[in-house]
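Reopening this one. Same input as before:
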Amino acid sequence: MSLSAKCYGPLGLALLASASLLALSSGTVLAQEASTTKTKDNTIQLDPITVEGQAQQEAGDPTPPVYAGGQVATGGRAGILGNKDTFDTAINTSSYTEKLIKDQQADTIADVVDNDPGVVTSYSYGGSGDRYMIRGFVLDGDDVSLDGLYGTAPRQLVDVSMYDRVEVTKGASGFINGMSPGGSGIGGAINLVPKRATDTPITSLTTTYGMDSEVGTHLDVGRRFGKDNQFGIRANLKYSDGETSIDDEERETIAGALSFDYRGDDTRITIDSGHNEKNTDHGRTSITLNSALTAIPDAPSASHNFNADGTWADLQDDFVQGRIEHDFSENIMGYAAIGTRHMEESGIYSTSRIDGTDGTMSYSSSYIVREDTTNSAMGGARIKFDTLDISHELNVGASGMWSKSHQAWAFANGFARNNGNIYGETPSSYPALGAATGDLNDPGLRNTNDLTSYFIADTLNFLDDRVHFTAGVRRQSVTTRQFDLTSGARTINYSADEYTPMFGVVGNVTEQVSVYANYMESLSPGETAPSAGSDPTLTNPSEQLAPYTSEQYEIGVKADYGTIGGSIALFQIEKPSAYKNASNTFAADGEQRNRGLELQVFGEPVQGTRILGGVTLLDAQLTDTQNGTNNGNSPIAVPDYVAKLGVEYDLPFLHGATVNARVIHTASQYADAANTLEIPSWTRLDLGARYETEVGNYPVTMRANVENVTNNDYWASANGGYLTMGAPLTAKVSLTVDF
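Same output, byte for byte:
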């Protein structure tokens, strides 16, 4: 782009010489200061101004551009409402970018959401998967969506090098996302955005090394071709293997992704496929607590592996997903998405348990074999129209997910007592396994789960497009069947329907500040009553209760000043829970109520200095418990506050060099509903640096990050009533060359 003008006087010349550009709505834009040249006729010719950044406008449902600083995006996917600018929606979202993933050398989703003050990470029970707590409620690793579609994302451990964004939505999302496959996600949701070809060709090779001996290679290639670059292909391949910073723990990663896209004048198509494989030997998993324990011992050395030897876990996911959008007219867009995923899991797990305050431990074990096949689909239309001075965006559609799980297992006969100590030696082998349930070589059908829904929503924009009001409802149907692995007989046949509404309003007070409020609900499957054998007094043994809805109320303020942005949110979420009431009936008469204040900040307030973080304050209580025993107590694993702050600084004396630091602090957590067992608060410090330069005209980036620099020993989470250890001091280095 170039500018030319005649200037008659020093003031006009000065104004033109200092011309700059600012583009907030379409992405981050950088402009050079305009220089001038005087021509023979005494006119002033401005030299070309170079404009850089993600300012390209996309048709249809475009991915929101990156915000100043490059660590987060200006928006994300708001479920069925599509990709929206955060500033203009009544939903609190954070979208973490590929740049952040690469610069922090993140390996899994947990590494990325460690930047979010509303999220606490942990391991799944007895296994190797990640688990998250958003606004004080659990989100299982099985309940992550892929480009807005449930059921197709890899489960448990997801390698994030294959993805362009990791999006976190705060709050109950039963309406915008539908019911998750596992029914978790009451406090929020996570969505993955696949990498796709950009207008700039990509050929990037990264080599990595992590403590103690993890070595890896990652190749990323992307190209566009055809008329007006209509077609795009992006391929990613990664392999890493070696011992982690935890004693005797080894991990192997084999991951690949291939994406194709087409962007025509009125039609857009994407096809995303991938392979995600994580193999772990002697992994340090979570640790359970004996019910007779009176206090939780201090955490052992951060690098100590207290798990029994001989354990392993192999997790493999293969998926393919397609999406098409078509503009039938200027005001009507139709869309459809369909995908499938096949998952295989096998492993020998050893569950460790703390039995005494001196660290005495016992162990159990299991051999799990599981194969899942999930098919998922969604379709609908977005229709724009006006009534008087009000513009509308009507969203209508349907979604469905159909999954089958084949399983078999063998368990040890209880816990083998007193054969280890959390501070010392651990068993050289896991306890012997008992008889198998099902065929371990050919697992049988264990359960099927069908989720279907219909939705409608209308977003009204009025007062010169400064106020946006959204109202909608989703009808969700759940059908679950369970089968006996020995006889093949159906043991559970459950079907239910539920409606989840949503109301939200956002008002743009100024061009920089908006206020919003919402009411949303999440939907979870009803809990199952204990069997008659475990409690003969129950009037409804083994009954599965109807789905229950969790309600959220939220108000907040969002700010966007171009180079720095943030939000403040006040929320309350009420979640039902079930227990045996005074009538000896298992019923959803209990409740957990979480109230909180969230403060987030991000951006580049000063050129060369970037910040990302915030604080979440939580007032969580059990308000209705069995016989009132635990009324007023804190729910398990919900800290009173979480604070996170990351800072990056470009060194002025060494062009291309950046240093960074991040502090994570989490308050104490209770590990039982009676609030007698507690893990202390903890703080983690991470440091890093990177250097960008050119070698032989090729851009080269060197990165070094150290997590838990002080090698602090701490219990990171009590999620689920079992403990997850914090990782020890872990150094990672990488070298990236862009060809």
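So the earlier flakiness isn't reproducible anymore. For the record, Helices lie at 10-17, 98-103, 109-113, 174-177.
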